[in-house]
Amino acid sequence: ALDTSTNTASIALVREDRLVAELTWDVGQRHSAELLQRLDWLLETASAQPSDLTEIAVATGPGSFNGVRVALTVAKSLCFALGARLSAISTLDVAAWGYASVNDPVWALLDAGRGEVYAAAYPSPKTDAATWTPVNGYLVLTPQELAQRIEGQALFCGEWRTETQAALNEALGDRARFAPQLSTRRAVWLAELAVARLRDGRVENPATIEPLYLRKPAITISKKAGIPLQDPHQPSIQAEATASQEQPAGSEDAPHALRR
Amino acid sequence: MAKKSNTDREQEPLCILAIESSCDETGVALIEDGRAIHANVVASQASVHAQYGGVVPEVASRRQLEAIVPVLETAFAEAGVGWGAVNAIAATYGPGLAGSLLVGLTAGKTLALARGLPFLGVNHLEAHIYANWLRTGESEQADPEVPLLALVVSGAHSELVYIAEHGHYELMGQTRDDAAGEAFDKVARLLGLGYPGGPAIQLAAEQRDTTRPNPYTLPRAWLPGTWDFSFSGLKTATGNLLAKASASGEKIAIADVADAFQDAVVDALATKTVRAAEARGVREVLLAGGVAANLALRERLKADLDARGITLRYPPLAYCTDNAAMIGAAAYFHLRRGERDGYDLEVRPNLQLPFAASRA
Ligand SMILES: [Zn+2]
To answer: What ipTM score was computed for the predicted complex, to two decimals?
Structure first.
């Protein structure tokens, strides 16, 4: 089970419903360098071969675009190289599953930058792992907009900025409770959800599985590979250094051209 | 199977699965002994980025992730082999767009881990040079022989590199402002010819009415005493020419301007390259990078170098633009020397050739 959706990464090795090993760490932006190194270490620690991996679970976001892409690339490549079966689960589903036994409605949050959060609400009473999905889909919105959607109590879990917690506290008062930030997400939770789904025969295609971005790409032209334009119709064009500031964009649905 | 040089005689063949994802093309190739191409597949996003007039980094990395497994599948199908035929994995780790590089490099490292194969990260610029080692023709072709001079010209680079031996690079000269390919893109935009600019300007220039002389000449920046290039003045001069014409109501043939611009770029690149080749006494010159696809540049350099008894080599068109075959060619020489990279290798968006100090 692989999750590098945010600065907190987690990987776990599970054999027949039993945890073999798990590692959760602060990965920063070094997703690609550290994920493979630690996956290698995890396999070695468990005296396992890569070919022992018959099922791969991956967290699909939302989160850091590059972070999510690293876990998905590793998952796709492992499935391609080993013929393993793939399960792909939203990072918000994973964050909330750790609090499935709580009686209040659970909201999973992840920081989305630009003063917004990724959010999803999970049902109460709880469903089981195979059917664990948010009640109203996956959202990207400000803490104030989020507060307006909440009637009654809410338990927030996941990762957020102090400003987010302050804004939710201000709007909801006693109705808001916050899970400890030290237990944000664990890859075993991802593994539990994946095992249940795979048992139900829900297998994803590694060739076509995509991240849950929830945002359109920023329209910035690369200095390395193109021209910064002075086009009056595209006022949002910026230098590449600002590419992490996501901006809404027009459609980009042209198909790939495969050629030799 | 490729004809072998002395260095790899008596060794087992080395078949490399190579991945290229530095910008907006996703490439996978299977290359034997750095020369024989068993498969070379490229998925291009050019049509996606054309609407923006340049490559949009976040769009490019999303497309890389979508394309990587289908391109891997197609490459194995094209070669008609399975994993048993692969001895090593190589992937570009720079220079390029961080988000795009991340996909190919991560895929390469993962495949190596999964299959227990050696892994090597490849410098994209070095790979453009090594595209000249690929056996792309029907007939047997000899390897380039060091010492060599290489002109690396692309959307991001315009560099004159002296190669004393494999892996030893000396930067003789480079652009002080725009890369040659960047100048093509910018001027194509001025002329309303679209993106990418290189092929668009070449096509426009070819349509010029050659029964009369070109009424325009655009300036060259010679930067005497150096092997450097400069193209930003040329871009400005082209803009001024168009502005003046539109102010005076003069009707301008775009094909004439495209031809005058291309001629100025080619003249600057070719003149310095030929002089540098003579100064270093090399017998062969390698042309590399996306702009090596420009026919005017190829023809001019070939004629000038032929006249001096120097051989010009350049890869076929499909191997000038970004592709994974060239990654496999460059990786071969490193892997044969026993070089390997770990799973902790990171992308290097601003990677350069490993230059030794220049003799100037
Ligand atoms: Zn290139």
So the answer is: 0.91
